[in-house]
Amino acid sequence: MPENDDLSWPSDDHDTSSAEPKGTKGDGEATAWLPVSGLANGKTEELAVPKVTPKSGSWFNPVVDVDDEPDVPKTPTPKWSAFEPATPVAPKEPEEPKTVFVKPVEPQHAEQPDWDQFDRGAPTPARAPEPSRPEQRQEPQRQEPQRQETQYQEPQRQESQRQEPQYQETQYQETQYQELQHQDFPRQEPQRQEPQRRPEQNRIDPPRPAQVPSANTLARPVRIEPSEERFDSEATVGIQQPEPPSEEPPAAETEAAPAPKPKKRKKRKVLVITSVIVVLLLAGLGGAAAMPKVSNRLGLPWAPNAPKGDIPKPAGVTRVLHGPDINGVAPSKAGLTAALKGPAGSADLGTLTGVVVDPATGDVLWDKNSGTPLTPASTTKLLTVAAALLSLDHGMQMSTKIVQGADPGTVVLVAGGDPSLTSLPLGTDSPLYPGAAHVDDLVAQVKKAGGGKISKVQLDVSLFKGSTSAAGWDPEDTAAGNTYMAPVVPVMADGGRTDPKNDHSPRIANPGTALTQKIAGKLEAQAGGTVTAPKGAKVLGEVKSQPLTEFTNSLLQLSDNMLADVLARQIALAKGGEPSFTGGAAATMDVLKQAGFGLSGVQLNDGSGLSDQNKIPAKVLSEILSVAAAPDGKDPRTAKLRPLLGGLPVAGGSGTLEKRYGDPNSSAGRGWVRGKTGTLSGVNTLAGVVLDTDGRMLVFALMSSGSDQDKGRAALDVVAATLHKCGCR
């Protein structure tokens, strides 16, 4: 026996016991077996006692750091003795227990166990006690022997996704081991009866009666008593381990320790997967946001098209055409004549007449038979537009109405001379006639006006007089399916085209009747022929065309024959003349003469130039353009005629000149030349304005007769481009 009652341990885990009936040796280590009685059928089972070392601690006592610990000689394995259970002390007031469960140890081990798993980290004397935390350890899976108990049923627990055996206890027994060769073994708690779900009572150490350990003490919980006493329950036996007093016990020990919660690996796995998905989504969004197209569309700061500086303040824009730069130096006549000698002498031009004028001074810089009348083709439209701008209000609009008919349920479509009315749905602007009125708008007004069921829609085309085609027109020009012209009537949709978006789509043979049928279908009525609307009839709906300046822009850009001939009739109506081909031509010439233009040699049969019987000298064309391009304030006619320049197509950019000036010989004129084209069989004409290299505006009129269409056009473009390249001094 040791000289004191303190427990001591061997200096190492070497077992020198002579009785090793089932010990397995390896690397100088052995396992002692303990006899256990009380098993079924009177059999005795030997329990394995794991090896313990000072470094790893025991499964009875925690590791305690002791300085200068003396070496203890190796001692043989002690023998076992039994104790009688001690009588427990009378219980105090019940207190809430603090219970932490420890899993039982297998009676037999197939492999060497890791005994460090039984070290519960008991506190050292220098520190306050800490509760055991079994939930922070992961123990190996093992199978326990089934034990039959009668009273206390512990709840089934899950830890680390494995099933633990159920614990049933009725009493706790304390045993002591016999001291042998200066070695005391821990003693087992005395057996006591404990009611279910009631706290344990404070106990005192009982005497050590001898008793063989029972099989039902193979596993018991570690209990932390409310009185600051701690009892470690180990694999086979347990002893009472009083804790050193603490002045201020931890707050965690003043409350009941909650039962350890099972680890939910599935939830953790779901959380990890969700986190990975979120990271991938964020990475994908970040990668998409880094793409130039996405960042540009979203306007992100790193977008390639993001502004590199402050956004400039908007500048005022005035859409007013100004005269030429009068400060630039004009070319000389000799220089210009020399420059145009080659291009103007091309054989592809056939018979060429033409003129170049400086509008700032009115000086003629180059002239080639400009007073000789030739067939102008569509350059005739320059005279029609000029006469309209000089005689009509620039904001004038042509009206189309539907009025109440003479008979009940009858309405009349009254033509006002607008061929630009579009059949495109409301909200869709016409690409051919920007700003045009909509048929659907007219129909909607009629439906809203009410007045009962409409059964018939009639047409009033009495505004225009005379023939629907002019002298000098080819009969094929007005035949159904042609792309140049339709019969001239005072109302139609989309200029008589079958496709409202295609300038070159086939024309309708009777566009006025076709529009009447379209409106009748929208009103769920029938077309009822032509009539004259009653005077003073109630207006059920009315729409108006775009203003005159916009109307003339469309006319010049597309070289639209229908709009030109209708506009000539509007001039006649304004002048009190007959709204026909003859009346329109006469009214046009009268307006120009009254404006001071010399019209010697001019002969007109229509307003479009589709007639091959029209004759105009190049000089007349240049005079009209020179007034339109003159400096502000020099000529009172200039303000009226200035919009004429805005409607001229741009070389290589718009209208009838959009696909021209692509040849290397004429490409210098792209964007600098603006002109009105004219083309008939054997006729090619071009008249307009151009800026030379000094920024000086020049007016030109070129008329070719007897030339091939494609070659003649290309040759005219070279002449105009030469004017742009010329400094010509």
Largest sheet: 5 strands, antiparallel
Strand order in the sheet with the most strands? 11-10-23-22-21
The counted number of beta strands is 23
Number of helices: 13
Shape: flat
Name the descriptors:
729 residues; alpha+beta; 5-stranded antiparallel sheet; 5-stranded mixed sheet; 13 helices
Short description:
This protein is an alpha+beta fold and 729 residues long.
Question: Would you give an account of this structure?
Answer:
With 729 residues, this protein is of the alpha+beta class. It has 13 helices and 23 strands. It has helices at residues 265-290, 292-298, 333-344, 381-391, 439-449, 511-522, 548-558, 561-574, 581-594, 618-628, 638-641, 643-646, 709-725; strands spanning 32-36, 45-49, 98-100, 152-153, 158-159, 162-163, 168-169, 222-224, 230-231, 351-358, 363-368, 373-374, 399-404, 410-414, 418-421, 456-460, 491-493, 526-530, 539-544, 616-617, 673-680, 683-691, 697-705. A five-stranded antiparallel β-sheet has the order 11-10-23-22-21, sandwiched between helices. Helix 4 (381-391) packs parallel to helix 8.
Map the helices and strands.
Elements: E1 32-36, E2 45-49, E3 98-100, E4 152-153, E5 158-159, E6 162-163, E7 168-169, E8 222-224, E9 230-231, H1 265-290, H2 292-298, H3 333-344, E10 351-358, E11 363-368, E12 373-374, H4 381-391, E13 399-404, E14 410-414, E15 418-421, H5 439-449, E16 456-460, E17 491-493, H6 511-522, E18 526-530, E19 539-544, H7 548-558, H8 561-574, H9 581-594, E20 616-617, H10 618-628, H11 638-641, H12 643-646, E21 673-680, E22 683-691, E23 697-705, H13 709-725
Parallel strand pairs: 14-16, 15-17, 16-18
Antiparallel strand pairs: 1-2, 3-8, 4-7, 5-6, 8-9, 10-11, 10-23, 12-20, 13-14, 13-19, 21-22, 22-23
Helix pairs in contact: 3-13, 4-7, 4-8, 4-9, 8-9
